[in-house]
Write a structure and sequence with these properties.
Layout: E1 20-27, H1 31-43, E2 49-52, H2 61-64, E3 68-70, H3 77-83, H4 86-109, E4 121-125, H5 128-144, E5 151-155, H6 156-162, E6 170-174, E7 177-179, H7 182-195, E8 199-201, E9 206-210, E10 213-216, E11 219-228, E12 244-254, H8 259-265, E13 272-275, E14 281-285, E15 291-296, H9 314-327, E16 336-347, E17 353-357, E18 362-366, H10 373-388, H11 412-434, H12 439-450
Parallel strand pairs: 1-2, 1-11, 2-8, 4-13, 11-18
Antiparallel strand pairs: 3-7, 4-6, 5-6, 9-10, 10-11, 12-15, 12-16, 14-15, 17-18
Helix pairs in contact: 1-7, 1-10, 3-4, 4-10, 11-12
């Protein structure tokens, strides 16, 4: 939907023609790669920055996600506190909060019309186990140091004032989040990076990243530093199939809706919205008054394969539509104009990372677990600081230098991922039907945290 309604050209930029030298080579024309280029050239406009993209900028997750600029890292505050300490982890959390506002500042300053609107996140509890988890979560987050202005518990009436969903028992309002059109942001950012002097080569597939060079199907790019910004597509690079797990998420988009629909369902301030089931769902009211809504649940493919056929997985799209109508029955007659999907990246320890090895000339960031729009901005700023040797408050944040183990070889990986998803999906059904906590999901979540 985002790319289909993009007002500009999607014609590919020229491909690389033969070998090339650069100061910095960036593999991946999504948010991580483009933010890195943007801030590098802001710090040193003389740098020769080259971006390599297999398709077009924004083809992957950056152009097809839910449009949530959410100030959150998947691992959570405690995971990073275990790597450093609680004050450092809170500093990282609030740096991601600031990245939400930074994206808005850059979009305005650079004239990128991406529908940025900071309306926060509203998460509903729609059964008793969800409500109990919400109350415990808020108490714990405040104990860790977050404030009521950042995250707070809502009564059922307060939650419905944001969005009039069915079956609401309570809610959480999480302030650091904005809604955007991600394709307009990533395509606009690519244009800005190009105007700043970067060379962007599209239709150029990287086959391998080695110290000091990128091997592609169109030639070799030699550079002092090579930045890997490939997220789920990392599995296509030589020797890296088990580094990050590609997980599918699918979306639907409605036709533009009349004001009468929003009079009934709410979303007046365009908050992004979800509920607290284990199998993640996410939605937003777009700037042109559509509902963009998605969820996870497409089967994992053996060998971490990525297949375009799963982007139109009919049964998954039907379940997503049914879930949207269950939330907002007023949308039962709304026409669905777009169905699509894509892959996000999950590290084995579920911990997003930034790394830089000056001696090896390699850098990278990612593993956002589907929450990468805001963190990728912070990652780009951090990588730019590290590469240029700029001393900043970002270079010692506790996600810098995080390493993660490889995923298990097959068939263990397939069995583990498929089994985990079966447990979580079954737990959601159990909790909605019985109003009792699914102990299997609680045990699985505890094991994943401990792993």
């Amino acid at each position: 939907m985002w790319l289909d309604t993009f007002p500009g050209s999607l014609a590919p930029r020229p491909a690389l023609e033969g070998d090339r030298d650069a100061d910095i080579a960036i593999v991946g024309g999504g948010f991580t790669g483009l933010w890195t280029a943007y801030y590098l050239l802001g710090l040193d406009p003389t740098l020769r920055v080259t971006v390599i993209e297999r398709d077009i900028c924004g083809f992957g997750a950056s152009g097809r996600n839910g449009g949530w600029v959410v100030g959150e890292l998947a691992a959570g505050i405690e995971a990073y506190a275990a790597l450093a300490d609680l004050p450092a982890s809170l500093r990282l959390a609030r740096a991601v909060f600031d990245s939400v506002d930074e994206i808005g500042r850059v979009a305005e300053a650079e004239g990128i019309d991406c529908g940025f609107h900071k309306g926060g996140v509203i998460r509903f509890a729609r059964n008793r186990p969800q409500a109990e988890r919400q109350a415990a979560e808020i108490a714990h987050q405040h104990q860790l140091g977050l404030t009521v202005d950042e995250i707070r518990l809502l009564t059922a009436d307060e939650a419905r004032a944001h969005a009039n969903a069915t079956g609401v028992l309570s809610g959480i309002f999480y302030a650091p989040c904005a809604a955007i059109d991600p394709a307009r942001l990533v395509r606009g950012l690519a244009d800005v990076v190009e105007r700043r002097g970067a060379k962007i080569y599209e239709q150029t597939a990287a086959a391998a990243i080695e110290p000091g060079r990128v091997l592609t199907d169109r030639g070799t790019v030699r550079a002092e530093v090579v930045v890997r910004a490939t997220e789920a597509y990392t599995r296509d690079l030589r020797g890296r199939r088990r580094q990050l797990l590609p997980v599918y998420s699918l979306m639907i988009g409605t036709e533009p809706l009349p004001q009468s629909a929003f009079d009934e369902i709410g979303l007046a301030d365009r908050p992004t919205f979800a509920d607290d089931r284990y199998m993640v769902i996410y939605g937003q009211r777009t700037a042109d008054n559509r509902i963009a809504f998605g969820g996870r649940g497409v089967p994992y493919l053996y060998g971490s394969r990525i297949s375009p056929t799963l982007e139109r997985h009919r049964r998954s799209h039907e379940r997503i539509h049914a879930t949207l109508v269950d939330l907002f029955p007023a949308l039962s007659g709304a026409r669905i104009t777009h169905r699509w999907g894509g892959v996000l990246a999950v590290p084995r320890n579920w911990t997003p990372f930034v790394h830089f090895d000056r001696a090896a000339g390699t850098a990278g960031a990612g593993g956002y677990v589907g929450e990468g729009v805001a963190p990728s901005n912070l990652a780009g700023r951090t990588l730019a600081d590290l590469i240029t040797g700029t001393d900043s408050e970002r270079v010692d944040l506790p996600w810098v230098g995080v390493r993660h183990p490889k995923w298990e070889p097959e068939p263990l990986r397939w069995l583990g991922v498929r089994g985990s998803r079966w447990i979580l999906a079954g737990s959601d059904i159990y909790e909605f039907r019985t109003n009792r906590e699914a102990k299997a999901a609680v045990a699985l979540a505890r094991k994943l945290r401990n792993d």
